[in-house]
From TrEMBL:
<dbReference type="Pfam" id="PF20256">
    <property type="entry name" value="MoCoBD_2"/>
</dbReference>
<dbReference type="InterPro" id="IPR046867">
    <property type="entry name" value="AldOxase/xan_DH_MoCoBD2"/>
</dbReference>
<dbReference type="GO" id="GO:0004854">
    <property type="term" value="F:xanthine dehydrogenase activity"/>
</dbReference>
<feature type="domain" description="Aldehyde oxidase/xanthine dehydrogenase a/b hammerhead">
    <location>
        <begin position="28"/>
        <end position="135"/>
    </location>
</feature>
<dbReference type="InterPro" id="IPR016208">
    <property type="entry name" value="Ald_Oxase/xanthine_DH-like"/>
</dbReference>
<dbReference type="GO" id="GO:0005506">
    <property type="term" value="F:iron ion binding"/>
</dbReference>
<dbReference type="InterPro" id="IPR000674">
    <property type="entry name" value="Ald_Oxase/Xan_DH_a/b"/>
</dbReference>
<dbReference type="Pfam" id="PF02738">
    <property type="entry name" value="MoCoBD_1"/>
</dbReference>
<keyword id="KW-0560">Oxidoreductase</keyword>
<dbReference type="Pfam" id="PF01315">
    <property type="entry name" value="Ald_Xan_dh_C"/>
</dbReference>
<keyword id="KW-0500">Molybdenum</keyword>
<dbReference type="InterPro" id="IPR036856">
    <property type="entry name" value="Ald_Oxase/Xan_DH_a/b_sf"/>
</dbReference>
<protein>
    <submittedName>
        <fullName>Xanthine dehydrogenase YagR molybdenum-binding subunit</fullName>
        <ecNumber>1.17.1.4</ecNumber>
    </submittedName>
</protein>
<dbReference type="InterPro" id="IPR008274">
    <property type="entry name" value="AldOxase/xan_DH_MoCoBD1"/>
</dbReference>
<dbReference type="InterPro" id="IPR037165">
    <property type="entry name" value="AldOxase/xan_DH_Mopterin-bd_sf"/>
</dbReference>
Length: 703
């Protein structure tokens, strides 16, 4: 294997509307998901059901499994006294059943293994758990979110402070000072989380194999191996097909460990563990609620002098997760005086995690509503306000942007949306019983490309090539766009590429997350293809292969790489009932070259719909008295349904970011949700004159 400098790929298949290469497998039901595999080694599995804590904090004093064990089909019950031991128990989310402590309501306190899923479920209901309960704290308030994490998003500074924010705010001709609240949100990919696991031996080396619904098979192996005291190559994780993730499958959660642990007790018999939709609300991560304090100081013409964005949010007492909510405020607009901060409440609750555009989504939701309020306070158009605050250089790093085309997105969207006809004052248009308004918001997302990706190219003869990388297609179309990239990198047709992915026995790849998959894996594929051609020429013998990682995976450090977008929404609010409809939603994006317009459009539309859903519906509720999540299915946790999604469209600027990747692409998975909720909220304000600052925006605000 070698490290290869990559050259730009000659564009041919890239940019085509290639139909998904796995479309037939998917629509005919032949695509196999995590608990559907029928391979010989996973036939006749035992089924695992989770027993979950009914207290928020305390200790398990006794697990009475007698009744469960008498139930027909139940094979065993594993509690903390009997569970296999891990060598590293420092990660209290993953190190389940290692002691008697309970850290949140819904934590796994026992596993039931049975011959059928029904018997396992009934068995779990028959397990009686006794507890010593301790006082808990499960509610985020302005008073308890006081702790500064060391970093946010594991890498960014918790606080920033430049210039003299307080003096600039005191001198500002226009001052906006508001507090906003965003709710708990729960990822709900179509395929609930699930794992099939089994243990074998190679001599006296134990091997753990899994089919796991995961965004990163290598990551799961790398995370679990040290906890078991194994080398990474003793764990093989496969995820050939995944029914969505949205961040919730980006890292291994406790159920993956539960499956591995249950399988450890069965002498080689495989186990299947399917997390229910309800259990997902407890165990597979969620977006923290936030309380966001924003102060903007500006001249009368809207030129910002100061931005202060102070965020309060929540983590879990058993494991820290700090959402980087104020991070986009650091680079979005010019202002000489700027301060951002994050403070956490460390609560006795489940561990929050990634949910599509973690940080950018709730941060820009609030920041872009605040900008709309500032435009109103200055009496200027919201697009003009953004023009006046367009920075020359990245305000955070002082570096030039690679290609900042926010204003191009705003102007193109304004033209398509008919912005010029927008009445300058709110509550100006009544159409029958409906107040009508339009709103805008900016979008941004960092361009992420991860080091540590390796691809393999093999000649199969007859001009055909096998290309392998251990990334995962979570439904985004990665298998298809990587086929296009590989075809162009090898200068062959897409029909001559056989792409393999979704297996940790394939070359190393980073997570399908942070909108980084296509950039990271595609760059490695380009590197391997270029080296293959250099080594073996254009007519290689079958069986020749080359493995390479991209030496220049980390881009040149002299620029700030971001994508941008502009979202426009029309809202209609019923004057009698407050019902909100969004008849039109448009996103215009600058994301570098689009590898496949069909799959890209799906990503943007999905992001826009998710942003619409967050603006109007999504709100998780936790009962602070017991610490449990009350909204735990799609009846009580509302999401946008088909009837809520009307005319939604996305387009993108024609461009290529040749400095960022050999394909010219920059990543598209998350930007569609960023800013969208703010555009919808701003449109409801323009329609009605009512400003909502506690999200989601619901009918009662207008009555
Ligand atoms: Mo995304 S939340 O980085 O999977």
């Amino acid at each position: 294997m070698s490290e290869q400098k990559t050259r730009p790929v000659r564009i041919n298949a890239i940019g085509d509307r290639l139909a998904r290469v796995d479309a037939v497998e998917k629509v005919t039901g032949r695509a196999t998901y995590a608990v559907e595999h029928q391979a010989p080694e996973v036939t006749d599995p035992l089924h695992v059901w989770l027993v979950q804590s009914t207290i928020a904090k305390g200790r398990v004093t006794f697990v009475d499994s007698a009744a469960a064990l008498e139930h027909p089909g139940v094979v065993s019950v594993i509690d903390h006294t009997a569970a296999p031991r891990l060598v590293d128990t420092s990660d209290r989310e993953l190190a389940i059943l290692q002691d008697d402590r309970v850290g949140f309501h819904g934590q796994i306190v026992a596993l039931v293994l049975a011959e059928t899923p029904e018997a396992a479920r009934q068995g779990a209901a028959l397990v009686e758990v006794s507890y010593d309960q301790e006082p808990h704290e499960a509610e985020l308030t302005e008073h308890n979110a006081t702790e500064a994490p060391e970093k946010v998003n594991a890498e960014a500074a918790t606080d920033t402070d430049e210039g003299d924010v307080d003096a600039a705010l005191a001198d500002a001709e226009v001052l906006l000072e508001q507090t906003y609240r965003t709710p708990y949100e729960h990822n709900n990919p179509m395929e609930p989380h699930a794992t099939t696991a089994w243990w074998t031996h190679e001599g006296d080396r134990p091997l753990l194999s899994m089919f796991d619904s995961s965004q990163g098979v290598h990551g799961v192996a790398q995370t679990l191996a040290p906890l078991w005291g194994l080398e990474t190559d003793q764990i093989r994780v496969r995820a050939p097909y995944v029914g969505g993730g949205f961040g919730s499958k980006g890292v291994a959660h406790a159920h993956v460990m539960a499956a591995a642990m249950a399988a450890r007790t069965t002498e080689g018999r495989p186990v299947r563990l399917a997390v229910t939709r309800q259990q997902m609300f407890d165990l597979t991560g969620y977006r923290t609620a936030t309380i966001q304090h924003v102060r903007l100081g500006a001249a009368a013409d809207g030129t910002l002098s100061a931005i202060h964005h102070a965020v309060q949010e929540q983590t879990s007492a058993i494991k820290e997760f700090a959402e980087q909510t104020a991070v986009p405020a650091r680079m979005m607009y010019a202002a000489p005086h700027r301060r951002t901060s994050h403070r956490l409440a460390r609560l006795d609750v489940a561990v929050p995690s990634w949910m599509r555009a973690p940080g950018e989504m709730p941060g820009m939701f609030v920041h872009e509503v605040a900008m709309d309020e500032l435009a109103e306070a200055c009496g200027i158009d919201p697009i003009v306000l953004r023009e006046r605050n367009e920075p020359e250089l990245d305000p955070e790093t002082g570096k030039p942007f690679n290609d900042r085309r926010l204003l191009d997105c705003l102007h193109r969207g304004a033209e398509r949306f008919g912005w010029a006809d927008r009445p300058p004052t709110p509550r100006a248009t009544l159409d029958g019983d409906w107040w009508v308004g339009i709103g805008v918001a900016s979008a941004t997302y960092p361009a992420n490309k991860m080091p540590g990706n390796t691809a393999r190219v093999r000649s199969l003869g007859d001009g055909r090539y096998g290309v392998a990388i251990g990334g995962v297609d979570i439904g985004t179309g990665a298998r298809t766009v990587l086929t296009q990239i590989a075809a162009d990198a090898l200068d062959v047709s897409t029909a001559d590429v056989e792409l393999e992915l979704g297996d940790s026995s394939l070359p190393a790849a980073t997570v399908a997350g942070g909108s980084s998959g296509t950039s990271s894996w595609g760059t490695a594929i380009a590197a391997a293809a270029q080296l293959f051609r250099a080594d073996h020429g254009s007519d290689p013998d079958p069986g020749l292969e080359t493995t390479a990682s991209a030496a220049d995976a980390a881009v040149a450090d002299d620029k700030a790489y971001h994508s941008f977008g502009a979202v426009f929404a029309e809202a209609r609010v019923n004057r009698w009932t407050g019902e909100i409809r969004v008849p039109r939603l448009l996103g215009v994006y600058s994301v570098g070259r689009v590898v496949n317009p069909t799959t890209a459009r799906s990503q943007f539309l999905g992001g826009l719909v998710m942003g619409l859903s967050a603006a109007l519906f999504e709100e998780g509720y936790r009962d602070p008295r017991f610490g449990h999540t009350v909204t735990r299915d799609l009846a009580t946790y509302h999401v946008a349904a088909h009837a809520d999604v009307l005319d939604v469209d996305a387009e993108w600027l024609d461009e290529s970011d040749d400095e960022f990747t050999p394909m010219g692409s920059r990543g598209i998975g998350e930007i569609g949700i960023v800013g969208t909720s703010a555009a919808v909220a701003n449109a409801t304000h323009h329609a009605t004159g009512v400003r909502v600052r506690s999200f989601p925006v619901t009918a009662d605000a207008f009555l």
